[in-house]
Amino acid sequence: MAPRTNTSAPYDGYHQTWIGASDSVLTQVGPGTPCGEYLRRYWQPVELAKEVGERPKLIRVLGEDLVLFRDKSDRLGLVHKNCPHRRASMEFGICEGGGIRCCYHGWLFDVDGTVVEAPGQPDGVDERIQASTRLGAYPVREYQGLVFAYLGPPESVPEFPIYDTLEMPGHEMVPYKAPFHCNWIQVQDAILDPLHTAFLHSRMSRQQFSEGFGEIGEMKFYERPSGYIGTATRRVDDNVWVRVNELVLPNYTQAGAAFAADGTAQRYFGRTSFARWVVPLDDTETMCFAWAVFGDRGDPPEYNTPEGPELIEQGEVFDRPYEERQRFPADVEACEGMGVFSEHEKENLVPSDKGIQMYRRRLRELIGALQDGKEPPHATSIWPNPLPTYGGDTVLTVPANGGDDRKLLQKVGMAVMEIQFAAEHLKGEERDQQVIAALKTLEAEGVAA
User: Peptide bond preceding 34: is omega within 30 degrees of 0, i.e. cis?
Assistant: First the structure.
């Protein structure tokens, strides 16, 4: 019997027992896969800097087992797991001043993979070994407590992106990581799904963030040269709260405050409270590497606690008993509950999923273009560092005027974004001043429904 993908018949379980396929173009990320090759064209975070100590660390990223280390000269290195001599694991190597030494026969490798020493060989053999043998290695750099790596072709290393919200004076950035035991794309999708916040994080169990998140509001999605933006514009009494979620291709995301904004108090161009990369470790495991941002334009400093980043990430701590996870599900439960691979073939996408549809379509296009030999674009080729971003919150006092309030919310949301787009060529305080002044003018003059 042929499977039926769309049905509204009662008690129709029998006809829906077939297993739907996942979107393999997006879900398969190992070396040589189309999506894996695409993601390798960008700098990806691979570990918290504080977790790289005196001993090498075995990590996994994009389906590849690698060894991350810091040598005695304080240089970071990221190399293939197996020594090119007799394939011993470099996780058991020794960090020295000039790189990492294999435990098996003492070969010493520099951070770029060059053979520095091959002890016990006849005179002159070292040069021949250096000419013919190299340990696989990747460029790495440390930034704000995260270690990043570029795993693509060495001739195509892009400029390292610096996002403006990561350079705001007076803010503390706390790096953290969040594991998801499932494919990366079902974790990534949530950033362009503003509707889930009102239900998963508010209406379905308990209020996990501020009260205003329970309002559904008006949603709109924007395609930008470097990614996508999803806005949710809510009414909270006489205020209009415009919350902006942002995705910079391929897998960097930003969102507004979890606890500093609730729609009850004016807020002009509040910025992100968490900035993260959704990084596939392989096809079935994902790690979000992120910062929680605390300060006047992020989340309140009182949430800068050991569990604070976890609450900002998903409204609940990660390690919880199963009964509590059932009573109060959060993002981990929603994403992992789909299975390690979501059955994309059985999805029934609706208008509120427009942002997800736009993003997936663009990913497929860029992945296909790379397979045809066209390198993907980078945000740093559009804007000079620091790159302008938009994720955050704006709350304006705009009372309902007796007309169609839905149209009023839509107009306010679009006007707020137009103000931000008009100033995206500016930097730092100059951009802030222009945006905030324009928002205050918008608030004072009002918007006609």
Answer: no
Please report the pLDDT score of residue 5 as a whole number: 55
Half-sphere exposure of 146 (CA within 13 A, CB side): 23
Q: Write out the E strands in 57-190.
A: 57-61, 64-70, 76-80, 94-96, 99-101, 108-109, 115-117, 137-138, 140-143, 146-150, 172-180
Residue whose C-alpha is closest to residue 90's, from 74, 71, 73, 75: 71
- Summarised one tens digit per residue, pLDDT across range 292-314 is 999 999 999 999 999 999 998 88
Tokens of 341: 């691979």
Largest CA distance in the chain: 91
pTM, to two decimals:
0.94
Measured on CA atoms in the order 254, 258, 263, 268, is the torsion positive or negative?
negative
Task: Judge contact between 274 and 255, C-beta under 8 A.
Answer: yes
Q: Is residue 72 located within the same domain as residue 96?
A: yes
CA–CA dist 222, 196 (Å, integer): 18
CATH number (domain holding residue 142): 2.102.10.10
179 and 303 in a single domain? The answer is yes
Q: How many CA atoms lie less than 13 Å away from 188 in the CB half-sphere?
A: 26
Q: Give the number of domains in the chain.
A: 2
